Amino acid sequence: MKLRLKYALPMLALLAGGPATAETLRWGAARDIYSLDPYSYGESYTIAFLNHVYEGLVRYNEKLEIEPALAESWEVVSPSVWRFKLRPGVKFHDGADFTADDVVASLARVSDETSPLKGNLPTYKSSKKLDDLTVEIELTGPYPLLLNDLTNIQIFDEDWMKANDSLKPTDVSAKKEGYATFNTNGTGPFKVESRVPDSKTVLVKNDAWWDTPKHNLDRIEFTPISSAATRVAALLSGEIDFTENAPVQDVERLAASPGMKVMERTDLRTVMVGFNRKPKLADGRDNPFNDLKVRQAFELAIDRDLIKKRVMRGKSRSAGAMVAPEIPGYTEALDQFPPGDAEKAKALLTEAGQDGLPFTLTCTTDAYVSEEELCNAMVSMLTRAGFKPSLDIGPAAVQTPKRAGGQADVYLLGWANEPMLDSYSLLVQMIETKSDTAGVFNWGGWSYPAIDGKIKAASTEMDRDKRLALQTEAMKMAKDEIIMLPLHQQPVAWAMVDRVESVAQLADNKVRHWLTVMAPAK
Amino acid sequence: MLVFVLKRLMNALFVMLAVAALAFAIFQVAGDPVELMANEQMSQADRDALRERLGLDQPMLVQFAHFVGNAAQGDFGMSWRNGQSVLGLIAERFPATMELVLTATLLSLLIGLPLGVLTAIGRGRWYAEGLQFLSIIGVSLPSFVVGILLILVFSVMLGIAPAFGRGEVVNLGWWSTGLLTRSGRAALVLPAIALSLYQITLIMRLVRAEMLEVMRSDFVKFARARGVPRHRIWFRHALKNCLMPVVTMTAMNIGALIAFALITETVFQWPGMGMLFIQAVTFLDFPVMSAYLVIISFIFVVLNTAVDITYAVIDPRLREAR
To answer: What is the annotated signal peptide range for this record (chain A) (predicted)?
Structure first.
């Protein structure tokens, strides 16, 4: 009987029209993933892609809220100890059972000294197995954002890692290629069928997935096409079905083409202006940007609405707050900004005794949407308001050391609060005083002990509402001081053939094809 | 003769060292890779540790000596971007680039040679002048524009050739070839045309100039006087005498084609060495960048040295001159 059932089931499925319509989604991306190993290089795009293959203990749902994934439930045992109940019956792609050992080994791998993702679990201390389906994670102290961090920590199979000498992360300085760079064994909705770097990575549906699929895809062919014009051409000529990176200038044309559709929104990344705040500028002058009046004049000189209208073609969202509305800690009160007023700016600049203030505006060519146009527009707005800006623009590889090294007088910096999706990310990385563990992106070199106090308090506050209130206060103080001057959230556009019925496009601009539904091919 | 060959080889070695040094000097101003490698959450202490592990905290001379020492043993390290061995990465991409370059070379010879003869013998006729004019466009159009135009016409409008990629490939040992599958051959057409366009015009102009020269020479006049048929004079006597410089130029240009293929490869998402290099540059993946530069210059140096030595073998006067 058992044997018969084995044959009967596929037959039934065939009759119901199930697997007969194999759906393949051809996904053309702007760039390739770096590796099949999510821990090889801490990069959001690669990790987001590998979420099709590997899963974490928790994940974000369609509303960007945290929901259970490989863990069914969790509780905070003591301020620094969390206990996770794991989901029973989960299998890895090779058929192995998912257990507590896998979680412990994966956490050990990701928090290893040489792991590039170590920073994604900043307060992690250790973990231990209580029984096959229970794990305790110990932290260095009370820390409210563990779940946010865990959404990006993907779980490997311990035995598989042992068998393939991959218990430690791949270390580029060790001169040895890692097995996990080319091979996968996850629990996720798709399995890797093949990968040729820079040309094609093929995923196939994991029939043994523990969750009920919301997608109807059997196969995903992921192809990087780095040239934007070629990518659009490939979409128009029917060689790909979907791209999450439609060039801004082609959006209208794509939307107007028969059989195409475009989905647009703004993402989480807020593009901001940062000021050098060291006592002296790089050229040895006393730093005029330490005068709040100068920074206020700067803000008045920038007409955000004009930038939105002229530079961003109406597709961006002008911002007064340093974080997007989707980020916890955001309040509408912080999102207010004064309208651009060149006359007022000029008067304020004169009052500060800095008429005709010369400085360099450091921009990149490849980091943000329409950045060159944006910087040029800012230069002319600032010039009209009595500043004397000169534009220094180049590839991010060249500009980043300048900005990080304090050689830029004024610079652009975008922050999406990834991967934790909480305003704490911005505060600890950018606003807090620079130290070994904080303020890595405090490129201007400022220090506001009062704000630091709020951020430190938030970092151990386990009550979510209280914590977010602290963070909002810190952001209000930073806003009053104009530490960073937010400009806007940038637009994103996904383009696809209209056979793609639904795609989950969330504010984090990550592709989640386990939620994609396609109409059957004709 | 032996002394000459040794001298040439020594020269080649010095050129290689100079290239490596130059590459190194460029890296010093290219920016800080750690700033690009580190993810947003990485602390300053971890960044410093990473810098140390990669040896970036060492003085430049030490780094250089280290690099030359390893490179001499064929060890170019690991790619910082994806944790693969650099040599493996380049070996993986090499077949794609070579197939593209050799097809483009073949195309440029097959089209350039007859066109050159045609414009020489038809000098002053409308078609010859027309071809001459078109060749100016061919020389001056940047190859990425040519590539995008080809994609627009043949992929988007006509839908007869793929816009990107290499199609299906077959692995013959470590060599992956697209020549054995239908989609592989289809994918090769547009990039090969885009890459060869410049070469076609170059060969056409070279052959034309040489042909005009040869046609004026005495032996052609005598042949004509003896009543040898015209097509025989053109294609046997005259063309043969033009081929030497064409062959030399083609051999030398293979190196240039490999180097310039990077633009074509980027436009067509051709998974070759050029695209690997472009991506390494945007990421400041120094091991890949330096290995690519060294290998490309190695190909140049080998081709040049081989040509020099061949010439010396053929023409003893060149040996004495040095």
So the answer is: 1-22
